[in-house]
Amino acid sequence: MKVLAAVAICAIVLMVPVVVLAGGGGGFDGVVTTLEHRYHAHATRIPFVGLISLVAHKATTGGVSGLHVAEFDNFNEKVDGDELNNIVEEKLGAGWQRMIRDTSKHGAEQTLIFAHPEDDRMGLFIVDLDGQEMDVVQISVDPDHLSQSIGKYEHHDHDEDNSDHDNNSGEDSD
Amino acid sequence: MKSSIAAILLAGALAVPALAQTSGLPLPSAVEKELEAKASNVTEVTLDKNMLGFASKFLDKKDSDQANAKQLISGLDGIYVRDYEFDKEGQYSLDDVENLRKQFAGGDWVPMVHVHEKKSGESTDVMAKMVNGESRGMFILSAEPKELTIVLILGPIKMDQLGELGGLGGLGGLGEIGKTVKKADKSATKGGGE
Questions:
Q1: Other residues' Cβ atoms within 10 Å of the Cβ of residue A136
Q2: Residue B125, by phi and psi: left (phi above 0), alpha (psi -120 to 50) or beta?
Q3: pLDDT tens digits for A95-104?
Q4: HEC profile of B28-67
Q5: Dist. CA B115–CA B122, nearest whole Å
Q6: Rounded to a whole number, what is the distance in Å from the CA of A14 to chain B's nearest CA?
Q7: For residues B83 and B70, what is the distance between their CA atoms, to the nearest angstrom?
Q8: d(Cα B36, Cα A37) in Å, to the nearest integer?
Q9: Which has more pLDDT, B53 or B193?
Q10: How many alpha carbons fall within 13 Å on the CB side of residue A16?
Q11: Is B104 in a helix, a strand, or coil?
Q12: CB nearest to A99's CB, from B40, B51, B57
């Protein structure tokens, strides 16, 4: 009896990754896997993206985190905008809301941006097809922290512009 | 009794996502589908109250223009934009435009501006949702020979505030519509007509 139970557990443990890899799972991996199967294309997962995500999290003091990126190069399949939208919607599941959709009938350009409120943060899911390249990106953004980080750089640029301007006016006056 | 409460709760739980899904542009999907089928390029922007709250956080409180926009946006219930681009002229008909206008005819919606340029064939319509004498929404329909743009803003907004939404990515064109409408207003008061 124990042997039978062990065999059943082993079978389930082995089956779970197969089902997930077949596109049964949702979220980022679910979308990418389904797109790979549907369009017979291979997605390149950016190496060390976890590390990049950690660096981004630190650099933006929590403004950006949970970064996932997959890139389809040499994407030659014709894409129907409605079908792509349905695939992404279905795999992302409830809670994700489409914010922006830009679709061309000829299929070469498609952009989808979905958002998912997560307390003070916002999850963003982006699918962008431009010619033969399709990018799939998921990030979690804290608008307050990110805005502060962007503000720092804006003020820095502004200061630099002002100092350039001061220098130029100095040169002019000479 | 318990089972009826459970049934009501279940019905409520099922209804919430359904309502959330229909909270987009309040146009019959047939009109949208028809235009979408004819267009070569479609752009949709759907920003409900949550999304607007999120977007407004990127606006700088210290910048007076952005602070005004932030205040305006935080009071709005939604901004919906549909832009249809067509390969050739005449791919959408005047009936299509009329059908869109009809969706906002009557009720609380009041036509405010109708500009039609005979030479170019371009037209702009602005309608406001008036509740107890206050503007609670705005519908803008801009028709060009090869492009049709629909903007629906829900919540308290005035015509002269349209330009303030330009700070929100992709909505810069609203400022231009605001200017067009102001020009039309001026020429109408001078007796220039449409």
A1: 22
A2: beta
A3: 899 999 999 9
A4: CHHHHHHHHHHCCEEEEEEEEHHHHHHHHCCCCCCCHHHH
A5: 8
A6: 35
A7: 24
A8: 27
A9: B53
A10: 5
A11: coil
A12: B51
Q: What are phi and psi of B106, to 5 degrees?
A: 80, -175
Which residue bears the tokens 């403004």?
A: A63
- Helix axis angle for B49-56 and B64-75, nearest 10°, is 160
Instruction: Name the residue type at position A161.
Output: D
- Cβ within 8 Å, pair A143-B48: no
Helices (H) and strands (E) in chain A — how many of each? Answer: 5, 6
pTM over 0.80: no
Residue pLDDT, tens place only, B36-63: 889 999 999 999 888 888 888 877 777 7
> Is residue B75 a contact partner of residue B68, using CB atoms and an 8 Å limit?
no
ipTM surpasses cut 0.85: no
Burial of B16-48, coded b for 16+ CB within 10 Å and e otherwise, reads eeeeeeebbbebeeebbeebbebbebbbbbbbb
What's the rounded Cα separation, in Å, for the pair A90 and B66?
36
What is the rounded average pLDDT for all residues in chain A? 79
Residue B139 pLDDT exceeds 50: yes
- Shortest distance between the Cα of B185 and any Cα of chain A, in A, equals 32
Nearest residue in chain A measured CA to CA from B63: A151
Tokens of B1: 């009794």
Inspect the interface and report whether the beta carbons of B57 and A143 lie closer than 8 Å. Answer: yes
**Which range (A168-172, B73-77, B79-83) has the least confidence?**
A168-172
Structure tokens at B158: 């005035």
Closest chain A C-alpha to B13 CA, distance in angstroms: 13
